[in-house]
């Protein structure tokens, strides 16, 4: 069995996907790389197949009809054979030194039978156009270099939310919790980083700057104007997160508080975008979203 499955969702990614694939290849034979072509209209599939031909025991090129980022992640989970599962977006990459440290740790975890549900690593915002980078770590929030449970975690600052960039799940856990991301929907990474958490019992914070998150590509979904344009998808994701868990049924207080804070962040972001747009329709959407939360989970 491979130690790690790296799933790389690709849509019209021909101009930059090689950097992502090459960075995952640093894991050698311990890694399985699933390059998911989500119905691209350029040479994405051809490039993926070239890598598969060159590294037949590591890379698999998988073509599917277009379904969006969540659909590609679903395909990765369905086809993964690795013990652990990591998503790498096609315009991002892994740091070389950190990747080698991760693989060394995964080998150690198997030898020592750690049986971890989730591994957490740092990520770095990379903005080459401004020659800027910002590392996000979990120092002070999570004890590092030891097996822990939710009862061991401390206070998460708002900047320290666990995101898709920082999370490595056990593949079996994703299947056990029946994670299925919606198709043709942006912002599904929030569901990925939220819904499986009650299934996580044993975790480990590996203090390495592994994931490099590229900022600055035209049309990137984190752009405020684009988020406002796609506000209905932001609302959809927020409602799916509300539906996924009755927070008051979570017995672990620290996990419950963390998930409440994450959901509150989603509500605030949606509300702020709706209010800032100023349209009566969007103000009604804000009121409806808060009503939805109250009806679904009256104790929150």
If you had to describe this structure to a student in words, what would you say it looks like?
The protein is an alpha/beta fold and 300 residues long. The protein has 10 helices and 10 strands. The chain has helices spanning 17-25, 44-54, 69-79, 96-111, 171-176, 189-192, 224-229, 231-244, 253-277, 280-296, and strands at 4-10, 31-38, 59-64, 84-87, 93-94, 118-127, 132-136, 147-148, 167-170, 203-214. Strands 1, 2, 3, 4, 5, 6, 7, 8, 9 and 10 form a 10-stranded mixed sheet that branches. The model has no long low-confidence stretch (mean pLDDT 94).
Compose a concise summary of this entry.
The chain is α/β, with parallel strands linked by helices and 300 residues long. Helices cover 40% and strands 20% of the residues. It contains ten helices and ten strands.
Rg over C-alpha atoms, rounded to the nearest angstrom: 19 Å
Give the DSSP E fraction (strand runs of 2 or more residues): 15-25%
Described by strand count, sense and barrel closure, the largest sheet is: 10 strands, mixed
How many helices? The count is: 10
Q: Please report the total strand number as a whole number.
A: 10
* Secondary structural class: alpha/beta
Task: Estimate the helix proportion, in percent.
Answer: 25-40%
Net shape = globular
Q: Would you list the SSEs in sequence order as H and E?
A: EHEHEHEEHEEEEHHEHHHH
């Amino acid at each position: 069995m491979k130690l790690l499955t790296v799933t790389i969702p690709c849509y019209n990614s021909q101009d930059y996907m090689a950097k992502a694939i090459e960075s995952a290849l640093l894991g050698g034979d311990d890694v399985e790389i699933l390059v998911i072509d989500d119905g691209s209209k350029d040479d994405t599939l051809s490039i993926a197949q070239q890598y598969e031909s060159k590294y037949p025991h590591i890379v698999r090129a998988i073509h599917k009809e277009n379904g969006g980022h969540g659909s590609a992640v679903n395909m990765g989970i369905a086809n993964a054979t690795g013990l652990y599962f990591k998503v790498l977006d096609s315009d991002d990459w892994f740091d070389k030194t950190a990747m080698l440290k991760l693989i060394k740790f995964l080998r150690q975890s198997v030898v020592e039978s750690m049986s971890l549900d989730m591994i957490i690593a740092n990520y770095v915002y990379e903005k080459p156009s401004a020659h800027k980078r910002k590392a996000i770590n979990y120092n002070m929030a999570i004890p590092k270099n030891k097996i822990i449970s939710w009862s061991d975690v401390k206070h998460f600052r708002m900047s320290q939310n666990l995101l898709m960039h920082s999370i490595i799940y056990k593949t079996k856990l994703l299947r056990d919790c029946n994670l299925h991301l919606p198709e043709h929907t942006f912002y599904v990474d929030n569901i990925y980083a939220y819904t499986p958490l009650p299934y996580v019992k044993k975790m480990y914070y590996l203090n390495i700057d592994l994931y490099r998150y590229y900022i600055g590509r035209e049309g990137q979904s984190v752009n405020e104007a684009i988020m406002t344009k796609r506000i209905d998808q932001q609302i959809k994701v927020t409602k799916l997160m509300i539906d996924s868990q009755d927070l008051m049924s979570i017995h672990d207080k620290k996990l419950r508080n963390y998930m409440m804070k994450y959901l509150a962040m989603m509500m605030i972001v949606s509300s702020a975008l709706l209010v800032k747009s100023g349209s009566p329709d969007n103000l009604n959407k804000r009121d409806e979203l808060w009503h939805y939360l109250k009806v679904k989970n009256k104790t929150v």
